[in-house]
Amino acid sequence: MANKKDLTLLFQRPYEPIFGVKNDQTGKVRVDVPPNFYTEKYKDISTEIQSRFGEDDVDRTIPVRSVAPPNLDFAEELPRKKPFCLFNRRHTQIAGRLIKIFLDAPDVDSLFSVASYAHDRVNPQLYQYCLSVAMQHRADTQDQPIPSVAETFPNQFIDPSVIPEAREENSFVPDGVRVSPAT
């Protein structure tokens, strides 16, 4: 069962499938989704995916409760790889509908389930905006920190060619002696 702190995991790696390994203060975390939550791309290989990210490879697993999937057909109008813009009236209308779906979830566990289902089916920027707004307006989640858009979409704010160098620096160089990548 998911708790409200687990919701912040849904912001990590927005372009990767929800079932990928995430990280929190406890270590590596796997989001274990029900079979009907896999998109068409992964549905036929869901068993292999579940065994690939097994219990031995992670410190904690969050089982996602199966819920009736919401109808997200309205969000298909904004493709996953296109930019989301609040100044676009149609994007704002789509966002309003997705926010309502997140707000209508009766509890945190249901919100985690519905948000997990939506994660791989809607535009990632739209998704993160809507989940952020919903969490800020729900009494049961408004005290949870929400990562900044610069953390979740660094490619929107820095030269993408710097990202691999920064990852290398972060992975192999100890704190205190790291240097900023040259731009």
From TrEMBL:
Domain Hemocyanin N-terminal intervals: 30-142
InterPro entries xrefs: Hemocyanin/hexamerin, Hemocyanin_N, Hemocyanin_N_sf
Record PANTHER family: GH04080P (PTHR11511:SF24), LARVAL STORAGE PROTEIN/PHENOLOXIDASE (PTHR11511)
Protein's name according to its UniProt entry: Hemocyanin N-terminal domain-containing protein
